[in-house]
Amino acid sequence: MSDSEDEKNDGAAPAPAPAEASEKKRVAPKTSDNIYSSAVFLTMENVLEKLKVLDYETTFCVKHHITPLARTSFALPAKNPSVQFKNFLDLVSWLCGEVSYFRPRPRRVC
Known about the structure:
The chain is mainly alpha-helical and 110 residues long.
């Protein structure tokens, strides 16, 4: 380095290259303004369709005294998470009972 270059830098970090200075912040692309287009809500809608095939509205909801689930039931945090978790556990328990009801019991070989 020459003496004139040392005087310009004075020990400071080198100046950024022109390409780096003009670089903009990265921003996530906008998918849609509609919050219901999210994959979480679509998944919950698919789950609800499958539950309706199993007639959960009459066999599960009536037995547990709850209203039928909405698209946002498990997709968004609830005001009371303990109630949301209890409803989820009740639903999973009911589904496990439905599976064991339709599946033939294995025979004992012993």
